[in-house]
Design brief:
alpha/beta, 8-stranded parallel sheet, 3-stranded antiparallel sheet, about 45% helix, globular, binds 6-hydroxymethylpterin-diphosphate
Amino acid sequence: MYHLRVLDLSDPGRARAELERVGADPEGVARMTPKAGFLAVRVSGLKAPAANILKQEMLSLGGDAAVARGVVNCAVERSDAIILGTRRQVRRLVGKLRPQPFGLGRLADELAALLRPGEPPVLRWHGGEVPLGRRPLVMGVLNVTPDSFSDGGEHFDPGAALDRALEMVEQGADLLDVGGESSRPGADPVPEEEELRRILPVIEHLAPRVGVPVSVDTYKAPVARRAVEAGASLVNDISGLRMDPAMASTVAQTGCTVVVMHMRGTPRTMQTDTRYEDLMGEIFGALEASVESAAEAGVPRERVWIDPGIGFGKSPEGNLVILRRVGELRSLGCPILVGASRKSFIGRTLGIDDPRDRLEGSLAAAVLAVWNGAHVVRVHDVHETRRAVDLAWAVARAQEE
Ligand code: HH2
């Protein structure tokens, strides 16, 4: 018996440890570690000759690249591709592509950037710095609305809102998200004046007292500006800077951090069509466009967080797929926020109508989001989520003694 066992060495640290365990030469460990991690990198819109060269180069390196069938005889003008190879092969591909024509030099630069580990992200706010990636961050939801789907009407009064905010901080919330307009499917928009009337007294009251950054959940630029003036440190825009053309420049001017979320259409229309040709591809493309419009307005990438928008124009099955594949969004290089708490896909999957009865499903979703790469989870049940995601994090980072 040779006791065959398939190892999971996708993490370079774990690969190194296992190679050392077989007693490999230290030189060999360094050489083999990048061979242990397999990558599948999707590339969009290559010119046909470029796709041809890419495939040939990957084959010569011992890997491969999937391209459209018409590429070989240039029957198509452009093709997407999936590069298939070890981390080491893809790294060597970069050198091979750099001097080539047809836009491959630029592809080499983008691949090199993808392979380079980025700086660990940090949230800077007037109270200091909050590092992301050292442990999962928990964002507590504070809805100052009469009609939110799971906690509407509970925190309308600034005093009650402060009590709940302090309770969530006590329970381990790293951030608080204050919203004055429900975005549940079919919800009607709230006029700007009414939204301000709901949230401003609460933010003014909370921000100096809670000791954690406060975010404002709004897609309206004037509301965002007033909220930041009142003490908010983040703007959480469910429309990904799409619904108010002034939002990107407002964020740039205020110097705050922005969460750009993916949503199809508006809360009124988003559930009318939840079919996608390529769900993760569409979310990735839309978030990339949001990050670019932030950059064009002068918001640096380290101040942009991305969010796939669970429940916003997605089918119940689609939301499950997002939870499993959320790590693909890491290629955008921004912190990832996921908000699955108490949402209807949990009710549909588990057969539970009352949103307040969806705790276990919400915890499972938060754990999966963190396990698959989310930096921040937006939740109603802070106490329970803090414990659940901290355990998931401990498992993800556990090392043998
Ligand atoms: N979900 C809701 C609201 N805002 N923001 C981000 N970034 N991500 C989310 O998933 C998200 C969000 C909906 O949840 P909730 O605030 O509890 O309900 P309502 O919109 O009915 O107030």
